[in-house]
Design a protein that fits this description.
heterodimer, B: mainly alpha, 20 helices
């Protein structure tokens, strides 16, 4: 009965959304904000990647909020998973020679790719969030191949905290210098060069480190809190 | 370039500093866990200190600049390209209420996590995130930015609810997470529709474009989606199924923050949307019907509830239903009634959950509790009287305004609603007085008296209530001004776009 009700409800909702979709002018949206940003962003922000100009420039405050959401999720996961101490947990056996060697080889490669994606966020597709996930993946493979390996919670907490603080401090610096929180500083440089677009690359780096540390931290908690065979 | 920095400018009454009450708690939350590894006592103090600072900054700005509404751009990009904060009286009022209530109900060691260094730091960090998010909800003037802060408040509250280390609380958190996620999807679809219709996310520009683009069935659907979505935190019927379990399972102070603060901020977003972009009668009618269902189901369920926090949770659903009915009346009278009810509920429900820190568990077991702590008993009676609406307490005037509004609207629906509200009030009176009588029963079983802090917070809020009773006229005048400002769509648009210069069509 309950399943039937859920089914009817879901069906109704889908029908409503489809009916809505039929009414909407999909494909030809009014480009009020969009076209204006396309026109002025290269001069105002100086990032070759317009998506990053929106993400860290025009809507940088939203990005700070999203960073905080991810942080809140990681912290909440820590609340749920962090009760059991690492010592009394029986860990999975190591993944074997092949996996371990593969993970060891991948580790530096993933770090380089991660930092590359972060550092070029204002030039090419990518940036802090994407690069941060790749950094975290470097630690994922290491832990999965050798579950006995232990990630230092203290180190993760420090990177996480300082990277987040750096993002906000850059914003506060702009508030003092320019009068606007998170306004781009340091001049724009030559568009397309690695050192350009003012403070945007630094914001990217802060995001990348924070996202990487958070995801690695969740992974570390999961591997510490793995339930022993009941 | 660094030496000429003047840190004192952060204290100056510049509109740009209004971001600080949002940003400083975020900064403190990020640094909480590393700091707790170095110096635990310092980390314990950091949260309350930052809240004090935020409250002081907000109050300072309100006193210096609050006379006329103003807006500020973030990052120096003018709206609609960038994000903006819009600060009017209501925004300042709630932005100030957030740190003050968070200080009163700071979930210290009483709320799970105990003295464990890491869990304590996580608890404090999550509370600070909740504070930053709710302050942002009060101030932001950008639809997507509101969604981001709403989501931050949601995720932070999941963690805070999960602090109670019981299986029941964990299951409640999971249900809360599911309902919230469903609501978030609906909000996102609603925002997408609004963006597709108007091409902008700035509330002021949406308000400007709404007459041509949103006053149609598509706009109605967008509003309905956002109403249900934001309604999850505002305990709107029918997306409030998470409420009783979460409030009964969560640490009582966390429940005080969720029922008191977070629900009010969610209501505020809905009201802003209603006033600015969707002022059609159909929208108000949906709110009226959902609010009515909320008050009926909430009060009846509260009447049957067997334990104290659960009773508070159900009655909270009922009172938020009444708040929705008040706002659905529209016009200055409706907004005044809604604001008055919302503030009244903020004060009373927070305080009652503060009392629930010790009065957990079944109502039966509370027999004679007022004898072991007379002040708590007296406070409960005072709050109960005001909730029911006994003159001259503020609750009476707030309820009266709603009834007057309904009577003025006339028509079969409004009069039915009026009758049902009176009926719900009778139910409310019956269960609240039943508990009051039980509290004063002459039974030898002693109930543990309250800690000084929770009782102090409740007593302080009781004093606020009594002060409002004595100064009813000035309070009503101030609220009237706020309601007028909240209702003034043109002024909102002109605050953001002076002379409409920045708007191109």
């Amino acid at each position: 009965m309950r399943n039937l009700a859920s089914l009817v409800f879901a069906g109704g909702l889908v029908f409503l959304l489809l009916a809505l979709g039929a009414q909407l002018a999909l494909g030809t949206p009014p480009m009020r904000v969009g076209s204006e940003i396309l026109a002025v962003a290269p001069q105002e922000v100086g990032a070759a990647n317009i998506v990053t100009a929106v993400l860290l420039g025009y809507r940088g405050f939203d990005t700070l909020g999203e960073l905080a959401i991810l942080f809140a999720a990681a912290t909440a996961a820590g609340v749920v998973l962090g009760r059991r101490r690492a010592a009394d947990v029986r860990r999975d056996p190591p993944g074997g020679e092949v996996l371990r060697t593969g993970a060891d080889l991948l580790f530096p490669l993933l770090l380089v790719v991660g930092f590359y994606v972060i550092a070029h966020g204002h030039l090419t597709p990518g940036g802090g969030f994407q690069g941060g996930v790749i950094l975290a993946a470097a630690f994922f493979t290491a832990i999965l191949a050798q579950p006995a390996r232990h990630l230092s919670h203290a180190l993760i907490a420090w990177i996480e905290g300082l990277a987040g603080a750096a993002f906000i401090l850059i914003g506060l610096w702009a508030l003092l210098e320019d009068g606007h929180f998170l306004a781009p500083l340091l001049g724009q440089g030559v568009m397309g060069e690695l050192i350009s677009a003012g403070t945007l690359p630094f914001l990217s780096l802060a995001i990348g480190l924070k996202v990487g540390a958070e995801l690695a931290g969740i992974m570390a908690h999961l591997s510490d809190a793995e339930a022993p065979d009941a | 370039m660094i030496p000429d920095l003047q840190l004192s400018t952060l204290w100056a009454a510049s509109p740009a500093n209004l971001v600080l009450p949002v940003v400083l708690p975020l900064l403190a939350a990020f640094l909480m866990q590393p700091l707790a590894r170095v110096a635990v006592p310092l980390a314990r103090l950091l949260g309350p200190l930052v809240l004090l600072l935020s409250a002081a900054i907000t109050l300072n700005l309100w006193l210096q600049l609050g006379a006329t509404p103003f807006s500020l751009t973030i990052g120096g990009f003018a709206s609609p390209l960038g994000i903006l904060f819009h600060a009017d009286g209501v925004a300042f009022l709630f932005a100030l209420a957030v740190p003050v209530f968070a200080l009163l109900f700071w979930p210290g060691t009483a709320s799970g996590g105990g003295d464990d260094r890491d869990q304590g730091a996580r608890r404090d960090a999550l509370t600070l995130l909740l504070v930053a998010a709710t302050t942002g909800l009060a101030l932001s003037g950008d639809l997507f930015n509101l969604y981001v802060f709403y989501e931050l408040a949601a995720v932070a509250s999941f963690g805070l609810v999960a602090l109670s280390d019981t299986g029941r609380a964990q299951i409640a958190t999971f249900r809360y997470l599911m309902v919230s996620a469903f609501g978030s999807v609906l909000i996102l679809v609603g925002i997408a529709i609004v963006y597709l219709q108007t091409g902008t996310l700035s509330l002021a520009q949406i308000a400007l474009l709404a007459p041509e683009t949103l006053h149609n069935p598509i706009g109605l659907a967008a509003f309905a989606l956002m109403l249900i979505g934001f309604g999850v935190k505002a305990e709107l019927f029918p997306v409030n199924t998470w409420v009783p379990e979460v409030y009964a399972g969560a640490p009582a102070r966390v429940a005080a923050l969720l029922a008191g603060l977070v629900s009010k901020l969610a209501v505020l977003i809905i009201i802003r949307l209603l006033v600015l972009a969707f002022p059609q009668p159909e929208m108000a009618q949906i709110m009226l019907v959902l609010g009515l269902l909320g008050i009926l189901t909430g009060e009846l369920a509260a009447w049957r509830a067997k334990d104290f926090p659960r009773m508070l949770a159900f009655s909270s659903i009922g009172q938020l239903g009444l708040i929705f009915i008040a706002f659905s009346l529209g016009g200055e009278l409706g907004l005044l009634a809604g604001l008055a009810l919302a503030l009244h509920h903020l004060v009373i429900k927070s305080a009652l959950f503060g009392l629930a820190v010790r009065w957990r568990g079944s109502i039966e077991a509370l027999a004679g509790a007022a004898r072991s702590s007379p002040l708590a008993g007296a406070l409960f009676v005072l709050f109960a009287l005001s909730l029911v609406g006994i003159p001259p307490l503020p609750g009476f005037w707030a309820k009266l305004l709603v009834l007057i509004g309904l009577a003025e609207t006339g028509g079969a629906l409004a009069l039915t609603v009026l009758l049902l509200i009176l009926l719900a009030t009778a139910v409310e009176a019956s269960y609240l007085f039943r508990i009051a009588i039980r509290l004063y029963q002459d039974v030898p079983t002693p109930v543990a008296p309250h800690g000084r802090r929770d009782l102090g917070a409740a007593a302080l809020l009781g004093c606020v209530l009594l002060a409002a009773t004595l100064g009813m006229q000035p309070v009503a005048d101030r609220l009237g001004d706020l309601a007028e400002q909240l209702n003034d769509r043109t002024r909102y648009i002109e605050t953001v776009f002076p002379l409409h210069l920045a708007v191109k069509d």
